[in-house]
Amino acid sequence: MNLAETDTRTASSPTKALPVPSAAGVEAWHVESPVVPMIALAFTFEGGAAQDPEGKAGCAQMLARLLDEGAADLTSDAFQERLAARAIELSFHAGPDAIGGSLKMLVKHADEAIDLLALALAKPRFDPDAIERVRAQMMAGLRYQQNDPGVLASRRFFREGFVGHPYGRPSSGTIESVAAITRDDLLAMHALIVGRSKVKVAAVGAISADQLSEGLNRAFGALPEAGTLRAVPQTTVKDLGRRVLVDLDVPQSVIRFGLAGIPWRDPDFIPAYVLNHILGGGAFTSRLFQEVREKRGLAYSVGTSLVSHRATAMIWGYTATKNERVGEALSVIGDEINRLVADGPSDEELQKAKDYLTGSYALGFDTSTKIAHQLVQIAFENLGMDYIARRNDMVAGVTQADIRRAAARTYADGKMLVVAAGRPTDF
């Protein structure tokens, strides 16, 4: 069957995703939408930077950057020319727990796009010149970041907060670790992670279930079973209550802070998500924004977000302020956390947060690519194919009791690990 032959049935909602199996044993979550003659594919392989060999942080990221640098009999230039000639968008990325990718193409070029994806996944070349070019790019980026306060603060936070754990290593590596990565390391990591038994796939656009099933066979069927991943032990943020200084001669200190969190797969994640919006997740409405920026002018930006990895979860915060006002800014942040734990939000504050979070959710599904990536992330987290349909009801149903329970699991003692990059006078 030619993938370019598609029908014109009515577009489907992302809440109506359906499973599509394939003979290769790979299943995709599928949303058919023939309104625009395009197809977006997103995929994620279990295993990422946490699987980097000892002393070779950055290996997963280098692997991801090399997958479209030539495959089979196509050199890097020839591979990129094939993509460009058909306006095919193919990219790969690596995170702590996964290596993923994205493919976007016009329906009339779907066959060639799928074939190129299959080659990139199953037969990457890892040519020496491509490896050295990507290595040089990564090392140039690392050198540029050596004086970036935000990067230095973030790296130090993870090094201290997850000492001795794979999450404590920088995903992009260091100059020394990237220099040490060999072609054999890349081949071994490819064999470990890029296998059909470890992949989650989502497809959105003008492609039928039968066409998608055939495309899955062609894209992933030649892959072997994935290797056995090294166990990544469960962990939490260490050294809560400690403050760490990264000495840097700059007039403004960049601050990163973190507390215990709740993973996405936990029943209390949604209450924690609403609570975080009230504290620091709302761009202009959060308590931290109002108290730190609007009332006191301590910082241009301040906020918090929930981070959920396979082996940990945390509340991750950021701000930046003048060196002489770092202590004051941290005091205000701590006071707001304590006040939220002690008193909780008002009923009006809670309702406004829920209204915003339910009303804005659809903005994450306004393109085929966004829908595909949302679906594959939900599949990766094993949240269920009906999660999108359930999510707003779960948010709307959060009660004050739920908020208090989530606060007790996260902000209870108010202790944070804080890292400041700069020269604060009252840290």
TrEMBL record:
Peptidase M16 N-terminal domain segment(s): 37-148
Superkingdom as given in the UniProt entry: Bacteria
A single GO BP: proteolysis
EC number: 3.4.24.-
Domain Peptidase M16 C-terminal intervals: 181-356
InterPro entries attached to this UniProt entry: Metalloenz_LuxS/M16, MPP/UQCRC_Complex, Pept_M16_N, Peptidase_M16_C
MF terms in GO: metal ion binding; peptidase activity
Hydrolase among keywords: yes
The name this protein goes by in its record: Putative zinc protease
Keyword list, A-Z: Hydrolase, Protease
